[in-house]
Amino acid sequence: MEGHQEPSTQGGPALKRQSFHWAWVILGTCFLDLFVNYSARLGYGVVLPEIIKDLDLSRTASGSIFNAYLFAYIALTPLTGYLTDRLGARRIITACAFILATGLFFMGRSHSLWTVLLSYAVVGLGATGMWTPVITVVQRWFAPHRRGLALGILSTGYGLGFATMGAAFPWIVSHFTWRHAWYFLAAGALGMVFLNGGLLRSSPEAAGAVPWGLKDIGIPLTTGGSKRKIPLRKVFRHRNFWLIGWSYFCASYGLYGITTFMVDYAKDQLGLPLEKASLLATVHGSCQVIGVLTMLPLSDYLGRRRTIIISNSMIAASLAGILLSGPSWQWLYLFVGAMAVFYGVTFPIYGASAGDYFPKEYMGSVIGMWTPFYGLGAIVANWVTGFLRDTTGRYNAAFVICTLAAILAVALVWFVRRPVTGETD
């Protein structure tokens, strides 16, 4: 077990006697991980118009750059999730932060399509440690009925990262170049190497503590109603695993098909200036914070399945609104903001489902194995959206497909039922 492989470090057993719980240090460190990581991931869409202009790329090629990131990300995240369960989150997250910093630095040094593809693939490799291990370790440090609250606070990190890029990028371009955006992000990722190595503890047991929110130290932490340990292969064969996984695919397709290209859509198809088009990223990121601070804590009471149904339904409605808003930038801002409220909920709520529907000892492995569904949804969306834009000259047909994908995401999760236990099939 992980707790036996990573010994307690200084201050470990004393944590129970401190006036604060170490879970909040874990949460704060992981918040910064997400802030830096998602500034790089979601900020790509903000930087995209300048990359297209400087390197003379097509929209299909620009979608392929993001797909290089996603290929590396989805290919190795299942392994990262498994290693998180076996070796501990601190080792994995710290190593991946260094890889992330390296890839971001070389993004700024790239001068051709192939060098950008390779550099962003390295960024994707580093990002494997910035989601699955992060939400796994946070869930382990908080009691089951407090995970929605913890993930809500944590998830403001990627919303604020996106919002910061949307606000900062026009200033960076006017004072430096688009390349400096990657240099600044690389410096932030390098700083996280030291913070993760010094502050993270992979589990409460490794630090001589118990999850925050447990009133009685002697109460065992159970997840998903597990009575006895079941084989991992049974988890991966269960209908819940596949229903949630394919719903994740459809949700990812609907969201990324629009989010990756929305700044280019506003600038190229609607004719908005860069400052006003980039502001969409700030609206998007800011509204994500509203969603994660409301819907994720509510999911502790509503349940993950019901929250996913509500969230994906609102996303589908918002995507349809973006499509129908036409040339009105005011309506575009409104519907992008509405989509973002529930966009921010999507990824952590699917991750939290791993803790609710499957045994806790497999949490990292389940989240890691769901990542290919998410990644493939984004990859297909980027290719299809970029291809349709290049062939038709407009984004309308691609956005219709995104809306339909979000509707299908609702339908699939509707059939999710009992948690996986030693007694269920």
Primary descriptors:
mainly alpha, 0% strand, 16 helices, 425 residues
Describe the structure.
This protein has 425 residues and is an all-alpha fold. It has helices at 2-5, 22-55, 59-87, 89-108, 113-127, 132-141, 147-175, 178-199, 232-237, 239-259, 262-269, 274-302, 304-324, 329-357, 363-392, 396-413. The longest helix has 34 residues, at 22-55. The two termini are 26 Å apart.
Largest sheet: number of strands, sense, barrel closure: none
Report the mean per-residue pLDDT as an integer: 81
Task: Give the terminus-to-terminus CA distance.
Answer: 26 Å
- The proportion of residues forming helix, as a percent range, comes to over 70%
Rg from alpha-carbon coordinates: 21 Å
Structural class category:
mainly alpha
Strand tally, please? 0
**Alpha plus pi helix count:** 16
> What share of the residues does DSSP label as strand, in percent?
under 5%
Envelope shape: globular
Run of helices and strands? HHHHHHHHHHHHHHHH
The protein's oligomeric status is single chain
* Low-pLDDT residue intervals, each spanning 5 or more residues: 1-17, 216-227
